[in-house]
Amino acid sequence: MDKLRPIIALATSGLTSKLPLKPRTSSLIVGPSGMGKSHLARELAKEAGVPFWEANVASWIVLGAKGGNQTLPSLVTWIANRKSGLIFLDELDKLTSQGEWTNAIRLEIHDLIDGRLPDGAIDVSGTTQMEELTDDQDKFVRKTLIKSEVEDKLKNSFMIVGAGAWQEAWLSHGQPIGFHQEQEVKTLAERIERKQIKKSITPEILQRFRNEILFLDPMTEADYLHAMISLSGRLPVNQRCRFVELAIKSIPSAVEDGLGMRVFEEVYAAFCSEIYHRVAGDPMVLEEILTRVPA
After folding, report:
1. What's the pLDDT score for residue 212?
2. What's the CATH fold of domain 5-164?
3. pLDDT recorded at residue 221
4. Residue 22: helix, strand or coil by DSSP?
């Protein structure tokens, strides 16, 4: 996180267009599933005080697809209505699979990281303060202006953070995660040649991000405790103690089994189940308790 703080400050400052050289700020996070990559990116945005937008390759909807909101137009609208922000692209390792659908997603994401947007991603119905334009020529002008405006903001006021597990590389170059009574415990970072992990990432991805990749090792007990404190802060005050109690009981097994951030999803499910039984399954009371705004 410390290494990314100055990067996001620069990327979202709006100053990069005034500098003699264009600094590369897009950053890549790599680590096994469940290590909290999206949590880290979200916390980075929160700490920097900028909006957060997240997309997953597995749920990406390409331009021209029927049914559902296409991803890029939604992002364009989001950028147009904000001064700066962090764009988080998860599961980039899935772009290595072959197929027409994946190829289309790959092209859109590559262009996005490069700061380019296809014309089809621009909605002329209105994302800026410009007056409504009606005829075809005016619509073309409007689309051109919107595209230029959004691309400029994308390049100079937004940071892109990509992430992926590249799980096969971690497993093939490392040992199973867990404790062994007769063997000294070592972190995954000590067992794995990170250069080998890096080799499994396609050049098309690597060349679009900073060379300094942020590798996430399996979470330690201290990491779990820090995440627990951060997550409990999202709950109403009168719910935090019980959530923390349940989380603390689960942390030892999470460390041993390498569960990562998903352990807190399980803890919260158990927490919600307790409340469900307490209110005898009353849906209105359950909703009121669980959606209460934190004090």
Report:
1. 92
2. Rossmann fold (3.40.50)
3. 93
4. coil
What burial class does residue 156 get, using C-beta atoms within 10 Å of its C-beta: 0-12 exposed, 13-18 middle, 19+ buried? Answer: buried
Which parts of the chain have pLDDT scores under 70? 67-68, 124-137, 167-193, 295
| C-alpha span between 54 and 135 (Å, rounded) | 35
Q: Is-contact 50 84, C-beta < 8 A?
A: yes
Taking each helix axis from N to C terminus, what angle separates 136-156 and 71-80, rounded to the nearest 10 degrees?
80
Q: What does 186-226 look like in DSSP terms, one character per residue?
A: --HHHHS-HHHHHHTS-HHHHTTS-SS-EEPPPP-HHHHHH
Each residue's pLDDT tens digit, 230-282: 999 999 998 999 999 999 999 999 998 888 888 999 999 999 999 999 888 88
How many angstroms separate the Cα of 191 from the Cα of each of 24, 177, 187, 197, 293?
30, 10, 7, 12, 44
What is the C-alpha to C-alpha distance for residues 164 and 40, in angstroms, rounded to an integer?
13
Q: What are the extents of the domains in the chain?
A: 5-164, 221-290
CA distance 19 to 37: 30
Angle at 56 between CA 24 and CA 260, to 5 degrees: 90
Angle 142-136-129 from CA coordinates, rounded to 5° = 25
| Residue 180 DSSP class | B
CB-based contact 219:253 (threshold 8 Å): no
- Between CA 124 and CA 82 the distance in angstroms is 17
